[in-house]
Amino acid sequence: VQSKFPDMGTTIFTVMSALATEKDAVNLGQGFPDFDCDPLLVNAVCDAMRKGLNQYPPMAGIAPLREAVAGKIAASHGRRYDAGSEVTITAGATQAIITAILAVVRPGDEVIVLEPCYDSYVPNIELAGGTVVRVPLVPHTFRPDFDRIAAAITGRTRAMLINSPHNPSATIWSREDMLRLQDLLAPTDVLLISDEVYEHMVYDGQEHQSAARFPGLAARAFIVSSFGKTYHVTGWKVGYVAAPAPLTAEFRKVHQFNVFTVNTPVQHGLATYMGDPQRYLTLPAFYQRKRDLFREGLKRTRFEILPSEGSFFQCVDISGVSDLAEDDFCKWLTTEIGVAAIPLSAFYGNGFDQRVVRFCFAKKEETLNTALDRLAKL
Ligand code: PMP
Ligand code: GLN
After folding, report:
1. Closest-approaching ligand to the CA atom of 340
2. Do 59 and 88 belong to one domain?
3. Alpha helices (H) in 144-259, listed in sequence order
4. Which of 110, 196, 284, 325 has the most crowded CB, counting CB atoms within 10 A?
5. What's the pLDDT band for 4 if we cut at 50, 70, 90?
6. What Cα–Cα distance (Å) separates residue 11 from each residue in 18, 145, 342?
């Protein structure tokens, strides 16, 4: 066939996980836990199946789960979304993001992404016929550069994607950052897609600054999150989007013909399980222990350890360890040292000039220790 997308490659996560499996390497590349979820969550899903909750749910998701999501956002961020008209359950954050983009981006519309960015954003915008406008985060610190963002906004800008805690850099946006964005967008009609899948993984006593907390942002935002990250079930592929009713109405126009709806028993199980907020409130401490163990172990290596304020990622600069370009370094590390990582170049278009790779520390302590022992030999 004549390819519709001749330049579209295979996602780095597929490539690196396949190589890790082939080489029997410790996979700190693709972001997923190597430990199981709470058995109570599995029981809740199985109970729903046994009760016969196995047919199509309502298009936007079952009411108890949408209510649980609205309640969680209200408790965490002080904004009350209407469960009926403003919350939609999706097949993971991935589907939430592409559906939001398809719902609002018209051919020729400009959409701003801040690079490095998650690898689905750019192809999603292209699939919608939009024009990708790449604005780099400040090299090495990965902070937003508001002057450059301001300069990128034109009369054709339809939307902007932000992501905090950030994949891949593990930085988070401060309250001041969000206020600056709010001021910047105030005179515009630019819509916001706020990818907050790591919202419950913020460390050192800091707080996640959801776009939901800022009325001028929330009014224009699709807020996206993922149960996969929060409850250690990435393979279930269930997430949600919260957005003001007029935006949600546009979102659902696409959602109904895109997935129509999402796995029924998993929705029921999650609705039951979410009743106890401790299940997400304990997540920062749970992951901070892993982050601290991993960072402590990295001190035995010659990597430069970059900050990890949120998410389950840790980036390192490889300059002190190798002269290889980071893509080649990741392949070499997987093949020869037995540890898989993700090169940051996968999150950029052109113009990448750093030498940084990303590890995922959502792993058992023994897995992290095995990887660290191998990395210490470099
Ligand atoms: N956005 C970001 C920043 C992510 O890291 C991920 C997970 N890799 C997703 C979206 C997709 O989440 P899900 O698995 O729920 O589709
Ligand atoms: N979000 C995960 C990561 O960044 C992987 C998701 C995927 O494999 N597409 O590693």
Report:
1. 2
2. yes
3. 146-152, 175-185, 215-218, 227-230, 245-258
4. 196
5. confident
6. 11, 27, 11
Looking at residue 311, its pLDDT comes to 98
CATH of the domain at 191: 3.40.640.10
Please tell me whether residues 59 and 116 are part of one structural domain. yes
Q: Are 146 and 218 within one domain?
A: yes
Coil, strand or helix at 198: coil
pLDDT band at 179, cuts 50/70/90? very high
Q: Does the pLDDT at position 43 exceed 80?
A: yes
Q: Is 30 in the pocket of ligand 2 (CB under 6 A)?
A: yes
Distance CA 349, CA 73 (A): 34
Confidence band for 351, pLDDT divided at 50, 70 and 90: low
ipTM exceeding the 0.90 mark: yes
pLDDT band at 221 (very low <50, low <70, confident <90, very high): very high
310 lines ligand 1 (CB under 6 A): no
Give mean pLDDT, residues 306-318.
97
For the Cβ of 123 lying below 6 angstroms from any atom of ligand 2, the answer is no
**355: containing domain:** 12-30+282-376
Domain count, the chain: 2
Residue showing tokens 């030498």: 355
User: In angstroms, what CA-CA distances link 172 with 136, 162, 224, 273, 344?
Assistant: 16, 11, 16, 27, 17
Nearest residue by C-alpha to atom 7 in ligand 2: 13
- Contact of 378 with 328, CB cutoff 8 Å: no
Kindly give the interhelix angle for 92-104 and 245-258, rounded to the nearest 10 degrees: 110
Based on the domain organization, do 229 and 312 belong to the same domain?
A: no
- Whether pTM > 0.95 for this model: the answer is yes
**Same domain as 182, residue 83:** yes
For residues 156 and 204, what is the distance between their CA atoms, to the nearest angstrom? 40
